[in-house]
Each structure stands twice: as structure tokens, then as C-alpha cells.
Amino acid sequence: MVDAWERNHSPSFRLNVSNTMRFFLLSLVLAIVPASANPTIVGTIPRKAPPSISAKRAIVVDYMSGRVLYEKNSRERCHVASTQKLLTALCVFDTNVNQSFTITKSDTWVEPTKLGILPGEVYTRRKLVGALLVKSGNDVARALARSVAGSESKFSDVMNRKARSLGMKESNFLNPHGLTATGQYSTARDMAICAREAFKNPAIRGIIKTKGYNFRFSNGRTKYLKNTNRVLKSVNYCNGMKTGTTRASGRCLISSGTLNGRTAIVVVLGATSSTIWRDSERLLRWSLERPAAR
């Protein structure tokens, strides 16, 4: 079966048909689709022109259909920082997430942001995925990668296999956390594919919509983890997803929202600290708050 994304956007599906043929095809579709079918799940485009944004790259996708509602340099390769932790989480959820493992010293050898896990502590993979997506701990990413694949480099192979299986054709991942590495890259379009897959997972959806929670370390100490996604507070129907920032990537954010039965995923890459929240919020509101043209 042809994926909705490819069907709507691959050149091989951009058919130039006559008005007569269009009418015939529409009549055929209407005859096949039951009258009770809900038209809002078929990818819809807001009638109002999209807002102006400052970010270098962006894409807005209808979650249900995969239809692209807006894009700006969406196929341009770039660093995506910690937004790629969504792919890390997907790879972890392909394993036994209830399996426990012990933190090693090498897991903690990484630049901030760090959760502060310590060698000898024991956690389940599921528990650490929560901290991975809310706090964006790079030490957690390293620990999970080692737990799943034996090493960070072997886990990158797991990530790339997963990416290819999802149709992410313009990406190459070298680590689980998104810190800059030569030869590591993705695109806004590929990260939208990743985000759609992550949104399908109920456990991941539950994590990414969390504004904050108390994480309990294995030695009993606790730490409040505040979600780094500010759009969760500024847009009441926002329900995730993941932030990211490095010098090479600029400010990045993948956000999602659900309103009136429609869900949109917004990927903004290469923004600045003064524009990332505004760009993301504008695109999310544009995609869901305005009446849509079918």
C-alpha cells in the first residue's frame, strides 16, 4: 500500500488529469466511501495563508493522513540536536522496556544536559525514557543506548535501521542524544516521519505531554523534571513533543497538538532562542485553529 505521504507528494503521483477525469474519480470515491466516513481525518489545509516564520527549516503535517500542510526547506540536511531522542525512544520501545540494568561510569561521560544518574544505580528502561524525553538527559541517552545495543556506536546502527524502516531516507544518526557529530544529519521532513511514529505510541504520548514530574533516583533522592517544551503552556491543546539545541543546529522544536478531532505535527529547525517558541506556536495555531479547506 502506498503511504499517504508519498501518494500526495511523490512526483510519480502528481498526475495532471482533466476536469472530466477529476469529476469521474471524485464520483467513484464518493460511491465507495461510506456516508458515515469522517472527512476530517483525510488531511486538510487551513484556508488562511501560513504565518511568516524566521526558522531556516520547517514542516507541518496532518498526523492522520501524513499530508504536508506547510514546508520550508524541509528536505535540507541539518543537525537536529535532541529532537532525535524521539527516535532513541522508539528504538528503546522496540525492546523489553521493563528490563532493569545498572548504570556504568561511562554512561555519565557526556556533556550537559544531564539527569545526574550515578554508576551502580539500577533502573528500568521505561523509567529512564521518561527522563530522556522530559529532561532531555544526555547521560540517560547513553545509558539506554548501551543497555539496548551494548555501545553507543552499535545503537546508532539500531537507530539507522529503524529510520530506514520508517522511510526516513535523508538521515544518518551517530549517537542517541543529538550532540553534534560530523556525518550526523536529518531533515525536517524525516523528523516529521519520526514524530508521527512516536505519536502512535501511547506510552510516548503520555510522557511528552507531561509538563513536569518528580523523578525518583534508585537511592531514594528525588528531582523535579520540568518539560523543556514551553508550547505546552502557551497552547492549551499542545500535547508534546521534543526540544533540541546545539550551536550547529540552532534552536529546534517538534510540537504536536490536537483540536476538534484533528492532530498536527510541527517541526521547526534552525531557529533562534528568541524565535523558536513564536514560530512553533504560530504554525501550530495556524494548522488547527482556522477553518480547513478539504
Written description of the protein model:
Helix content is 35%, strand content 20%. A hairpin with a 3-residue loop joins strand 8 and strand 9 (250-259). With 294 residues, it is α+β, with helices and mostly antiparallel strands. Helix 3 (85-93) packs across helix 6 (152-166), helix 3 (85-93) packs parallel to helix 7 and helix 5 crosses helix 6. It has one domain (4-293): DD-peptidase/beta-lactamase superfamily (Beta-lactamase, 3-Layer(aba) Sandwich). The radius of gyration is 20 Å and the shape is globular.
Q: How many domain units?
A: 1
What's the gyration radius in Å?
Answer: 20 Å
Query: What's the level 1 CATH class?
Result: Alpha Beta
* Silhouette: globular
Number of helices: 10
User: How far is it from the N-terminal to the C-terminal residue, by CA?
Assistant: 23 Å
Domain Peptidase S11 D-alanyl-D-alanine carboxypeptidase A N-terminal: 48-272
Family: Belongs to the peptidase S11 family.
InterPro entries: Beta-lactam/transpept-like, Peptidase_S11, Peptidase_S11_N
Pfam families: Peptidase_S11
Features:
Beta-lactamase, globular, disordered N terminus, carboxypeptidase, alpha+beta, hydrolase, two-stranded antiparallel ribbon, protease, 294 residues, cell wall biogenesis/degradation, five-stranded antiparallel β-sheet, Beta-lactam/transpept-like
